[in-house]
């Protein structure tokens, strides 16, 4: 879809379920696969944005998020190649040849996917809406009505804490129930959450 400059458009609303739920996917769909410009036009019309979503510039993630994705890609690559090398040593040279041939193909693909996933990370505020973007093979851009955000969850793995990153989850009563802003710098994430929902985090930030 992205290579063809296309997109799908789904609604996030109470009572419609999620786009991943097959029993409700027809109800959440606002637009079947269509040109991306048409999807942006429909979004602007439905949400009364008064802005071109295609020209929206979101704040990107820190470089530490890129290092995390490169690390994941290399671990996945090693998970595929290590068994081939081990079996090649134990059984036959054919598997060793298969290992280096597949490595020539898979390593660049893994790196490209990691870089793409990093470049697709973004977040920001567009009028009355909080925007978050993420994904590589399937890139999603989510616009949440800021008035519908019920609360926030701040998640940090051990690796995220070392890198000064966090994953913020905007809790809502529709769709999946929570939408993530992935691998954002902690200070930037808290500032974004405070700006998106004024007054909700004030007391907690003062204590912090």
Name the features.
8 strands, three-stranded antiparallel β-sheet, 208 residues, 45% helix, 7 helices, 3 domains, alpha+beta, single chain, globular
What does it look like?
By secondary structure, this protein is an alpha+beta fold. It folds into three domains: 1-55, no CATH class; 63-117; 129-208. The chain contains seven helices and eight strands, in the order βαβαααββββαββαα. The strands form three sheets. The protein has a three-stranded antiparallel sheet with strand order 3-4-5. The longest helix has 28 residues, at 63-90. The termini are far apart.
SSE blueprint:
Elements: E1 6-10, H1 25-28, E2 29-35, H2 36-47, H3 63-90, H4 93-119, E3 122-126, E4 129-134, E5 140-145, E6 149-155, H5 158-163, E7 165-172, E8 178-185, H6 186-196, H7 202-207
Antiparallel strand pairs: 1-2, 3-4, 4-5, 6-7, 7-8
Helix pairs in contact: 3-4
Question: How would you concisely characterize the structure shown here?
Answer:
This protein is 45% helix and 25% strand. It has helices at 25-28, 36-47, 63-90, 93-119, 158-163, 186-196, 202-207, and strands spanning 6-10, 29-35, 122-126, 129-134, 140-145, 149-155, 165-172, 178-185. Helix 3 packs antiparallel against helix 4 (93-119).
């Amino acid at each position: 879809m992205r290579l063809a400059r296309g997109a799908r458009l789904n609604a996030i609303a109470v009572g419609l379920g999620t786009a991943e739920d097959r029993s409700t996917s027809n109800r959440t769909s606002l637009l079947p696969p269509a040109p991306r410009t048409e999807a942006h036009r429909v979004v602007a019309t439905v949400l009364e944005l008064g802005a071109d979503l295609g020209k929206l510039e979101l704040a990107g993630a820190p470089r530490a998020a890129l290092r995390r994705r490169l690390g994941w890609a290399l671990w996945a690559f090693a998970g595929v190649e290590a068994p081939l090398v081990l079996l090649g040593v134990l059984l036959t040279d054919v598997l060793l040849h298969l290992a280096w041939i597949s490595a020539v193909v898979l390593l660049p693909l893994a790196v490209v996917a990691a870089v793409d996933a990093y470049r697709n990370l973004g977040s920001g505020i567009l009028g009355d809406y909080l925007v978050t973007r993420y994904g590589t093979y399937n890139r999603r851009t989510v616009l949440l009505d800021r008035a519908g955000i019920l609360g926030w969850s701040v998640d940090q793995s051990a690796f995220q804490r070392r890198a000064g990153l966090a994953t913020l989850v905007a809790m809502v009563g529709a769709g999946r129930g929570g939408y993530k802003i992935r691998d954002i710098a902690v200070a930037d994430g808290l500032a974004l959450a405070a700006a998106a929902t004024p007054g909700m985090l004030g007391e907690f930030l003062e204590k912090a």
